[in-house]
Amino acid sequence: MGQVEKLPVFKSCTTQDSLSLEDCFYAETKKAFFKEFKTPSVLTTDRFTGAVTATFVVTTEGKFRLIYLNSPYIELKEEVERSFLRMESVAPAMYNNNKVEMRFQLPLQFPTENGGKISESKKAVESKIKQPKSDLRKVIAQARDASEYNEHRSQLNIPFNHIKYIDYDYQLNKASETHTAFKPYTYSFVNAYVDLDQEKQKFLKPNKKTWLGKKLWNEHLLSIEGDGYWLNMDVLADIQLGKANRGSTFTYNNTRVLTVNGGLGDKFSFSTTYYESQGRFAGYINDYISNRSDTFKPAFSEGLVPGRGKAKGFGSDAYDYPVAEGYLAYTPNKFLQFQFGNGKNFIGDGYRSLLLSDATAPMTYFKMNFSIWKFNYTNLWLWGTDVRAPVVVNNEHARKYVAIHYLSINITDRLNLGLFETAVSKGDQGFDVGYLNPVIFYRSIEFNRGEDSGNAMIGLTAKYKLKENIHLYSQLIVDEFSFGKISDLGYWGNKFGVQLGAKYFNAFDVDDLYLQAEFNTVRPYTYAHKDPVLNYANYSQPLGHSWGANFWEALVIANYKFDRWTTSAKFILGQKGFDPDDTISYGGDVYKSYDTRRGDNNNELGQGNKATIFIADLQARYLLNPSNNLSLFTGLTIRKFSAETTTPNFESSNDVWFTLGIKADLFNWYFDF
Asked: What are the tens digits of pLDDT across the range 95-108?
């Protein structure tokens, strides 16, 4: 049976026969748009001449919404967006008797005439969608080709920074076919929904004529472009100076960064970044770095900097910690992308992730992403490291393999569900080729190999767009569950975690005001294993939530942007159960074997030495260079850690830490533990 499609219908077109409906829709769209549109004065002042194209959608509610405009004029984009929003609603497009979203393009020719209206082209509205509900491949290709900047057309990752991704998240979720959980995003993906050229150009300073002025405010340090290739290089810095209430000396961080990005043809991209750093931090962070516990301290090193890796001593109470990241990206066609490198990945729509977080040190990975229709399927293979001294063999750290499947499905225009599974195996056993199968369930591999050969978990994500600017999201991670004791939450084997959250964009009708609330809880012994090498962790940090397990946490985030300024406030309150000694595991330390658990029954959240943790973090940034995200910043962090029982190695503390400096936000750095 043939598939029947129908274009949107204006009220004035309902009396038309089926053969005339298409022409009527085009004519009424042109009429309704031009009735609202007024040419921005800046275009007249600049004597702008040329054509631009507005890519728009008619939603399943029959509303018109701008997706993309290939123009650097912010005023023009705002006016086109306003004009579409003021147009009357229509009957939405239909496909096999189902409401669908349909996309079109509207050419706009300048200069204007006839009282400020745009000159009519031969065909003012042109449909670009032959199959309703198809993905945005044509629009994506157009956005890539129209971009002025090589990186915006590339398959390179946009550095994952929570604050920077707020704008992307909002724009991506306006469309019904996007998948937003797996991060980082690529430039070409985001560029189809966000005008990255305009976002960059609005912060450029064209009056800077000197070499130093252009490099500081506008450009990459070095840019090379030839026939079929391009390369950008920057030498950046993360220079921080601060003062904490604990300790008489100043805190500091001195990081020099070399980053190189480039492309060969339109299918191959590459990136490499090297950090050379020395730093002294607030008291609670220094305590973390210098932790001497056998379940944490790395061998052949004097400490572990959270999220960065091993460190050696530097001067007085300071550390030296180099980090290298990089990857190769290959995109053979519009459905597939491959990446191989060393870096971080993140799964989820929240601030935290219970499935895969970017809070640990970078890991070697191979990623395959497949996207078609309502589905986005990602396979991720990770090579992890257990750096603890007790598992060193022949002066080598223990290795582990982590295989991950994540399937994202757009159930409706508003509802997205994601299915997650992962399996961990030991490096000394060799890599089971069964884990290379991109579609098999890992639980079956673990069962066939034997219970002690690996560690498998499953998970679920959900996102619901309550309104265009209000999104609800959640996660569920299940490490182990006993159906026979499903109602007994005191049973140690019921190991799972839950996340619930909400995002509010342009809150209370205030542009660029963003609010977020989130709740996380993870049961005792989740992520752990009888053999700690098989836990779900890397470099002495959990791969899920950075607090590990046996905790609850509530957080609120507020973010406001104005011109080059970004201000943010984050408040966290939670409780976590710690182990009073090294002999018994109360379920919070994922590097302790669950065979040393306190008992099979009567386990509860926060058991052990319970601590209440409060964190307030205030930040302000001023963007200098939009090409490399170099910014001035200042921040204030307040942390209160209150333990029920204080011991010499486990004390309550109050930390106040003020910092200021200059940095390029190329990654998330989590100090909220």
From this structure: 767 787 888 888 88
